[in-house]
Specification:
The protein is mainly alpha-helical and about 80 residues long. About 35% of the residues lie in helices and about 5% in strands. It binds heme C (2 copies).
Amino acid sequence: MSKTVKLFFMVTILTSFSVSFVYPEKSKVPPKIPHAQDDKYTNCLECHEKGKEVDGKKAPVTRHPAMKKCSSCHKPLKN
Ligand code: HEC
Ligand code: HEC
């Protein structure tokens, strides 16, 4: 391997490590929304901030409650 190729790989690997460290939400795939998106589910944080129980299912607590526009990353499971 030439020096340029080695350098290229090192830079790529280091960059992805630092990105995943500083912005974990940008380097992972956001889980899809398994539930409906009607009126009952408009205020995401009402359930996902503390983990409210709905119909016997506990909403997973989000580790990033400060992020707005949840649906810009989380897409519905089915359209
Ligand atoms: C009325 C309460 C409630 C509201 C409001 C709500 N959710 Fe949920 N959410 C739940 C519950 C309960 C589950 C777990 C469902 C299951 O286990 O089948 C869930 C699951 C999820 C998951 C899957 C998480 C995982 O780890 O797989 C995502 C993503 C999600 N919701 C996003 C959203 C977004 C985005 C909104 C706003 C548009 C929202 N939710 C609004 C109750 C709610
Ligand atoms: C910039 C994109 C982005 C935005 C905006 C965003 N999320 Fe997420 N979310 C993610 C990613 C990526 C994961 C997976 C994280 C992981 O696996 O470490 C995730 C995971 C989750 C989970 C599963 C529990 C967890 O932390 O692993 C829930 C619930 C959730 N998000 C809810 C929300 C809610 C509610 C909002 C709005 C307040 C929101 N998300 C906004 C990208 C985003």
